[in-house]
């Protein structure tokens, strides 16, 4: 019998909270849903041992929680997705790609192809094979190294750039990604009616987008549209393929999808804020597809006795996913991946000692 009656509602909620938070933070959700129960021991560690089975109920439960995270991302970027979908269909109807929305739509499709193909073939066997505490600890450490490398390469590219030059003064043979990096480092004209966040206004007041205050209005829509126009201009086909292919690494428990795509975006010349946005947009269809594919498992024998727990875990995952997307959108306006890299390396090494020696 495939039922996993020993997953309690408390365990489902705790795992849901962990999954929703770590799926969007660049620290690997699958790695943490393997390592944290293993550290807790007892019946929690028993859940992880279920993942070594060819038909893993716990794995189906974990991946099923992805649907809640995908719904949060779709809701948060709803207006952006409406523009992207409209751009996709108008580009087909007009047989040309001209607007930023049309370009972004096709860039996301191109970037999704590598991980889509690899995921269909390798997702299940890789997760069953590597979703073990020691393997997850090793890959979590590697994930921290990837984040460090992304930051080092970003700084190197920034140091090589000459931000004082105008587009006409830049070398004609300069790659488009490097050109966009240089432009991003210069003051950018804001859309009408939008105030750039500053450390001090007329009375030293900090002006911030309204989503930081818990709401989204027309100014945020203009900021979103300006960000999408930057992405469409900065990300070429080559960069889209590069960033999209990096998601394949997330098939290993301990490697973060958001982390590797952000690192890939930084390497290709994006700012932290734009790399995060492109990462979230790129991850949405992949996470959504992963969750939808597991619905049939959870409605079948693997879901017997745990469907209520799946709902409870999904609600918890949605709550922490919403917190994560709002927090990270603000965090990466001024900060870097370095703290997450330090955490991954430290947590990974400690876990390697724990599960590799003791």
Structure description:
The chain has 358 residues and is an all-alpha fold. 70% of the residues lie in helices and 0% in strands. The two termini are 32 Å apart.
Gap between N and C termini: 32 Å
Overall residue-averaged pLDDT value: 82
**Annotation field: number of helices:** 15
Q: In percent, how helical is the residue content?
A: over 70%
Count of all domains: 1
Q: Work out the number of β strands.
A: 0
Beta strand %: under 5%
The run of helices and strands is HHHHHHHHHHHHHHH
For the biggest sheet, the summary is: none
Give the uncertain stretches in residue-range form.
1-5, 171-178, 181-215
Q: How large, in whole angstroms, is the Cα Rg? A: 21 Å
Map the helices and strands.
Elements: H1 9-24, H2 29-40, H3 42-49, H4 57-64, H5 66-76, H6 78-94, H7 100-130, H8 133-160, H9 176-184, H10 218-234, H11 237-246, H12 257-267, H13 272-299, H14 307-331, H15 338-357
Helix pairs in contact: 1-2, 1-14, 2-3, 2-8, 4-13, 5-13, 5-14, 6-7, 7-10, 7-11, 7-13, 8-12, 8-15, 11-12, 12-13, 13-14
Describe this structure in a few short sentences.
With 358 residues, the protein is mostly helical. Helices cover 70% and strands 0% of the residues. It has 15 helices and no strands.
């Amino acid at each position: 019998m495939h039922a996993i009656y020993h997953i309690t509602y408390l365990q489902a909620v705790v795992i849901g909270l962990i999954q929703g938070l770590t799926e969007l933070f660049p620290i690997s959700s699958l790695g943490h849903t393997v390592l944290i129960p293993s550290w807790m021991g007892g019946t929690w560690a028993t859940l992880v041992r279920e993942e070594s089975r060819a038909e893993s109920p716990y794995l189906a439960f974990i991946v099923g929680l992805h649907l809640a995270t995908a719904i949060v991302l779709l809701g948060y970027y709803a207006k952006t997705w409406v523009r992207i979908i409209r751009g996709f269909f108008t580009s087909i109807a007009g047989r040309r790609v001209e607007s930023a929305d049309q370009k972004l739509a096709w860039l996301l499709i191109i970037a999704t192809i590598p991980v889509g193909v690899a995921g269909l073939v390798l997702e299940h066997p890789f997760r069953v094979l590597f979703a073990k505490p020691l393997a997850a600890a090793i890959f979590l450490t590697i994930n921290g190294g990837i984040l460090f490398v992304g930051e080092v390469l970003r700084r190197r590219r920034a140091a090589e750039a000459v931000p004082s030059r105008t587009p006409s003064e830049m070398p004609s043979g300069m790659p488009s990604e490097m050109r966009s990096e240089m432009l991003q480092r210069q003051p950018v004209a804001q859309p009408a009616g939008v105030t750039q966040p500053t450390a001090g206004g007329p009375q030293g007041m900090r002006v911030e987008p309204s989503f930081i205050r818990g709401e989204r209005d027309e100014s945020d829509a203009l900021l979103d549209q300006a960000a999408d126009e930057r992405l469409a201009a900065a990300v070429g086909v080559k960069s889209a393929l590069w960033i999209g292919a990096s998601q394949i690494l997330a098939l290993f428990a301990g490697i973060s999808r958001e982390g590797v795509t952000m690192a890939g975006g930084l390497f290709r010349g994006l700012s932290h804020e734009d790399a995060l946005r492109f990462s979230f947009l790129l991850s949405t269809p992949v996470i959504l597809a992963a969750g939808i594919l597991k619905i049939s498992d959870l409605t079948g024998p693997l879901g017997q006795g745990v469907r209520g727990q799946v709902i409870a875990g999904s609600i918890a995952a949605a709550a922490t996913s919403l917190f994560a997307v709002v927090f990270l959108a603000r965090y990466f306006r001024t900060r870097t991946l370095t703290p997450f890299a330090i955490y991954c390396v430290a947590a990974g090494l400690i876990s390697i000692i724990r599960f590799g020696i003791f």
